[in-house]
């Protein structure tokens, strides 16, 4: 970590004399040390073509961290520590922020390769798809960038095919906030599959007052199956469930988010079997802890008994030594 040298005032002539002593006492000697955040250093791969997007790397020697420039620019929870200077091609990413983004990525799985470290998220609101940057390109996601304003965003294939959503992503002036997934302003554009699914949901809500849950929900699921949307519906549910750990681990999660997650988990009959199994796991852990406590109790009793035996042995030894000394004196 780079450090600024403490300021030292010049010596005043005659500082050792009594007349100069009051002037010397007026000098304030600052003791603080200013620390400058360590920045990632730009490197270019010598074996890659010059004009490809993957040949530019940023490296932190102190932490042994290297990252592609685009992986940094498009990561949802990372921003440059300083405004980008168009005349300076180097980017400004401080090492601590990059380390935090790496830590955040360990909780996120890539939609394409299903491995962790996926810090690049689709920018459309309510879309939970996360990628590694190059996995996103393989999955036909579309990067959107405005280098002048320093905005770098990405739309997944599903949402990039709609002109209104792509246009909204391109011209949105909302800057990203560190540690939070960015969303676009404007209307949420839905795919045809989502619109069909929402139509069925609306029908369910309208008929809810006239029919029982079984007579409404069973036809709804059958219609989803007939329309080829059942897998899509289940994928959306799984994406929602996969986003729960990220929200719970985020220090900025609000109380209302906790309430929403709690309601989704505890009020849903889908998780009844899970909670029964979880209760059994709790009972098993309690039993194991009780057994461990009993073992510790027996071990403590054994050690205490050993301690008493050792004390008795020591007392007998001292007594025998004393008797031997008395006998020798009598002779």
UniProtKB/TrEMBL annotation:
Compartments in which it is found: Nucleus
Alphabetized UniProt keyword annotations: Coiled coil, Metal-binding, Nucleus, Zinc, Zinc-finger
Residues annotated as domain PHD-type: 42-160
Superkingdom of origin: Eukaryota
Region span, Disordered: 1-21, 167-188
Residue ranges the record marks as coiled coil: 279-309
InterPro entries recorded: EPHD, PHD-type_Zinc_Finger, Znf_FYVE_PHD, Znf_PHD, Znf_RING/FYVE/PHD
Primary location recorded for the protein, binned into one broad class: nucleus
One matching Pfam family: zf-HC5HC2H
Protein name: PHD finger protein 11
Organismal lineage: Eukaryota, Metazoa, Chordata, Craniata, Vertebrata
Underlying gene: PHF11
